[in-house]
TrEMBL record:
Protein name, entry field: AAA domain-containing protein, putative AbiEii toxin, Type IV TA system
UniProt GO MF annotations: ATP binding; ATP hydrolysis activity
Transmembrane segments: none
Cross-referenced InterPro entries: ATPase_AAA_core, Bact_Antivir_Def_Nuclease, P-loop_NTPase
Domain ATPase AAA-type core: 241-356
Provenance organism: Candidatus Kentrum sp. FW
Amino acid sequence: MTGPRFQVHAMQPLFLTVEGIGPFQEEPFQLDFTDARDEPCNLYVLVSENGRGKTNLLDLMACLMGLLPGGEREKLGFEDLDTGNGRAQWDLLVELEREGKTERFVLSLAAGFGDPWSLADWGTARLATYGASKRVRLGYRRHDSSRLELVGMNDERVSDLVAAVRAGRDSPTDGFEENSPTLPTLLYFDPYRDIPLISTGIRGINEPLNWGYRPVHRFSREGESWHDSLDNLLVWLKWLDDERFDRAVEIINQRVFTGSAKFLKGVRKQPPEAIINNGGYIHRLDRLSSGEKSLVQLYLRFGVHMTRNTILLVDEMDVHLHPKWQYRTMRLFKQLARDNPGLTIIASHHSLELIEAFSFETPQEGLRKGGHIIQEGLA
């Protein structure tokens, strides 16, 4: 994907500032992704009741990460940025090695009407707080005519990063939660996670849809066709025969089925599909409970698509989960953040149990925790 003289050593969120987006219309609204010591958080929770704008903010982060390939565009794919006066700026701390030199800087991904980079300034003192030498920009300014103007490509750091992201597109990863590529990626899981019955497509050993690297992968309800199903993904991993399949099965059984009579047994040849052993009864993935399907999808997709610099967004992490599973999922997220230095987890929920499980004020080794409650009303 990238040569040894070009490596991304870090890409960590610092601040997201929005104006004219969803419910955030009256004045600029900001999320601070740093902890009490001004270090970028590796575990961040966004808490609110439904309808307060948390999904808007997660959608927006995915949209802004999607600006990394640059290029000419007619639309950004986010309504409040494509029309009206909506603006957004996402500041990330980047450590980049180019041609033998390593530099830390703030990358402001921004888009919207007028000058979206004016939402948050970066002076010398503020940059020094995060050990950054410079602030660079990448994104799109929308003019009165609706024309989108690409901004930032005159900086070599930005142009090199954009070129690397473009060149790396569709390059296959090489592990399961042990991938070596360093290009940044954002994995976004919306609240509608599900595994339906496969109803279309010819079953076989096929490279899964969107198998390779992308700066953004979005996951919702899995497709009903063979080509974009989790069954095809597992059959493909089995066919690769490079230990990824065994690791995937082990992780799913540890994280999802510990303490139950169920386990992911593997895949069968006819018909080709993944199979679950439920106390001796064999069935398909789509016969799992809603909570089990949500977690199987999350951990499989995460393991396959993560890189060494991954931002994991999970909207409504508590959906379909019993309080006991909510606690377990929070524990697992904490362990993932500890085990993967380049991983940032940003999760939303509206669960009182998860607020307690997060234990915001309690220091925990290997974790840099942060969070925000939108319009407090959870009590």
